[in-house]
Amino acid sequence: MKAFSCICTLVFLCFSLPSAQALETKGFSPDKRLVYKSVGDTKLKLHVFEPADHKATDSRPVAVFFFGGGWVGGSPSQFYPHCEYLASRGIVAIAAEYRVKSKHNTTPKECVKDGKSAIRWVRSHASELGIDPNKVIAGGGSAGGHVAAATATTEAFNEAGEDTSVSCVPNALVLFNPVFDNGPVGGWSHSKVKEYWQDISPAHNISATTPPTIVLLGTKDKLIPVETAERYKKNMEANGRRCDLHLYEDQEHGFFNFNKPENYQATVKAMDRFLASLGYLQGEPTLK
User: Could you list the residue ranges forming a coiled coil in this record (predicted)?
Assistant: First the structure.
């Protein structure tokens, strides 16, 4: 009976972590996959979705999404539906691979390094991708939201030898129940990053240059409390920065994923309107 109880506890913990929300989404296919970084034998790719009739001579906004999974696992396909939708609206949309513990035995530091590398690679290849390097959106869910937010806020964790003259700071952030507070008081997974938490926690690195941000969060998220998001918004505004917080009643962690159609549609429409307010999209959302 005791063994059964232990197994049940382990199962509960597994399905309570962000990695349980790192869904592999099927039924979507990127137009191409491009290697943006090589580390030893590991080649990291960008899964690119292009608008119809897209050309390299275009200058379109670009969105780069980072999957969730607690810095441990996950799949870029989690954001394939978001990428396909944004491509249908005229944005070049990318689901990025990055190193995770289960596959590469890495730490959160490498996750952030790869996120920064992805943004820099996209900017430096703007003429090949047909994108505007001054209209770069970073997005992600859960730990992927952390990676996206960290590219915009943290100064540390740049890959050795990388050209840091190319900015890794995106022009806008789209964050789905993001892990953006890693502090010792209520921060998520502080124990994993306690030796360098002040450098890697986006909530503790907000500045007057942090890009405009939208945060989408369920009110019953057991990992990211509403109070954390409200504090983030308050600190953003104290620095003169825009932070739109959308709360979804009675929704838990991972509520926004494609397998939950009503929430997926609601959050994608909110994302669309946010990007339209920045001039990256025109008209009303087209998602039915």
Answer: none
